[in-house]
Amino acid sequence: MKTRIIHTDRIKQFLHAFLFCFFIFITACMMSGCAKCPPITFSSVLDIQADESGTRTMSVTANKRTLQKLFHNSNFSFQSFITANCPKGLEWNYVDTASAYELTFVLSFNSLDEYQEKIDALTGIEQFSSISRPQVGVKTGFTLSEPDDVMAVFAWFTDALKERTGLSDSKLLSYLSQQENELIYNGRSYKSQNNALVCNAEKILDAKRIDILTSLSLDKWNRTIYIIFPDELRDNASNVKSYLDAIVPDGIEAVWNNDTTWQLTFSAESFKELCVQTSQLFQSSSQSLASESIIAENSMKIVHSYAEPFQFSFFVPDSGTARARYFYSTDTNAALAVYDNDHTLQKLPLARDGYDGYVCLFDDLVEGGCTYNYDAIFQYQPQQITVSTQIKSIQLLTRTITLSLGEVPKLHQKLITDTAKRDTYNFGTITAKTDDENHLTLFFTQTGTPSYLAKGFEAFFGGKESIDYCSHTMALFQPKHTYRFTESMDFSNFLVQPDATLITVMVQLPNGTSIISDSLESSLTTENNILDNVYSAKTTDNVLSLTMTLSQPNAVYYLCLLSLIIIVSAILFSIYKWLSHR
Q: Residue 329 is inside which H or E element, if any?
């Protein structure tokens, strides 16, 4: 019993001692906690706009009691301290509250290159902020990476504190606290990852439309390609331009319009060479698939058959889909028409969509690329047709039909002439002349009977011609011989727009012939000029009809009269001789 009482007393003594020590420990902890001052807190926000300008805002909250302790309760002016030590280039202000100073420092920049230069100077660390640009396709933007260390941008501040207080790095660190470090680009926040702030703002800007304009000039193929990018390109135009301009093949001129449209212009001597340059631009190797054939269906209609592949994936690497539009030029005097897949002539759209002289042959969304297959028809129309006919006798006529085609590409000039020679067979002579401005003129000359001329006309023009000469001989000794002359010529196969061509007719009559009366069909407008036996007329229709009634001295009458004179003279001479011998 006595032993149990002794153990109970020892337990009570132990508990009293434990409670006393615990009370002393708690009191010490509370006293030490009360003695510790709030730390100076630091935070920073890097805010970058879409155009790559921005600000780095650095905030400091310093408790006044902490500052008094740091500066040993001396008379302290924190504003004077900041004024003396704040680096140049930082804008700052502060708010003085009852318990603390709240300071804000702002570093402004107009570009990332300027930011990189300023932040390196502020931290004293070369390439503190690492910035890289994309190197593929039409990828734009940047990747920015820097240490997730707020105190690095306040090195000037902590160095000034160490010098003022004399504290070591480890002791001073107990008074400092890093609260926040954030990076914002275009309104989106990027947090720290693996002790680094990383902003991946790279973006693929797919071309939203690609316009291809192709034209044939006198001796060259010309092409202009417009690659239209989204409006977001304006914010990073300089970066994308520098990359795209570096990949332009030789011989292609590249300019930028409105910061979003890349215009590329180039020329080639052949269609296949044009396709090769296009493939190089689009970073594809499909130039071997390009093909062209040229056929002259008649002397005025030339068909170009094209098959040209395009690969657009280089300019639409993200979506792979582009709106592609293909335009063809009607700059020449030839009218342009196009066959569809069934080789049926299709009607061209009237809308030019801002490209004067071009018609749109293709407009659709394509996946990666496509091949254009089409037939472009050049239909040349003579600007003026002159029919010059010289009537030497009822069975002998000489006629030259002159076709003034205007400006014709050199690629077509020989083809037109050769085809015209082929179509006429042996019915006449075709000659061609080209002046300094590449205006092509064809001359179709025939000499022969009216029926021979009619066959030659039909062979060359593909239309029916009727020529009729009817002579009526009066009594043998009448002084005049009357002819009726009728001619009809159809130029409809040569005229795309009949009203656009001037047709001039000139008729040279035999010597001694006069026009008794003249009448014309309603389609012919007459100038009624009769000078030196030349009859001229104009028309704008595609069928020419001319009717004339002519008269000329009767050669038989004069022949008979001459014969009678000779006979009478011979008789008289014989009578004279006979009388002389008597």
A: strand 321-329
Q: Residue 238 corresponds to which amino acid?
A: S
Residues in Cβ contact with 108 at an 8 Å cutoff, skipping those fewer than 6 apart: 54, 55, 91
Q: How confident is the model at residue 371 (pLDDT cuts 50, 70, 90)?
A: confident
CB-CB neighbours of 60 under 10 Å: 23
Q: Which of 177, 203, 229 is the last residue of a domain?
A: 203
- Nearest residue to 153 (alpha-carbon basis) of 43, 52, 74, 246: 43
pLDDT of 542 > 80? The answer is no
260 in the same domain as 127 = no
Residue pLDDT, tens place only, 32-47:
433 456 888 999 999 9
143/185 Cα distance (integer angstroms)? 11
Any domain includes 494:
yes
Q: Can you give the pLDDT at residue 35?
A: 42
Compare 307 and 86 and report the one with higher pLDDT. 86
What's the pLDDT at 530? 39
The alpha carbon torsion through 276, 278, 281, 282 (nearest 10 deg) reads -110
Q: What is the DSSP letter of 81?
A: H
* Short-list 216, 261, 219, 217, CA closest to 237: 261
Q: What pLDDT does 396 receive?
A: 84
- Give ∠ CA 529-531-536 in degrees, rounded to 5: 45
Range of the domain at 397: 384-557
Overall average pLDDT of the 269-292 stretch: 79
pLDDT at 160 over 70: yes
Beta strand segments in 201-250, E: 203-204, 209-216, 221-228
Q: Average pLDDT in the 136-152 region? A: 84
> What Rg value do the Cα atoms of the chain yield, rounded?
50
In the listed set 203, 232, 264, which residue is the last one of a domain according to the structure?
203
**Ranges of H-type helices in 233-308:** 237-246, 271-281
Rounded to whole angstroms, what are the CA distances from 434 to 40, 45, 57, 407, 441? 91, 75, 75, 9, 6
Read off the amino acid at residue 133.
R
CB atoms within 10 A of CB 149: 19
Q: Are residues 182 and 284 in the same domain?
A: no
Tokens standing for residue 284: 């594809």
Question: Residue 131 has which token pair?
Answer: 């910035």
Instruction: For residues 227 and 271, state if they share a domain.
Output: yes
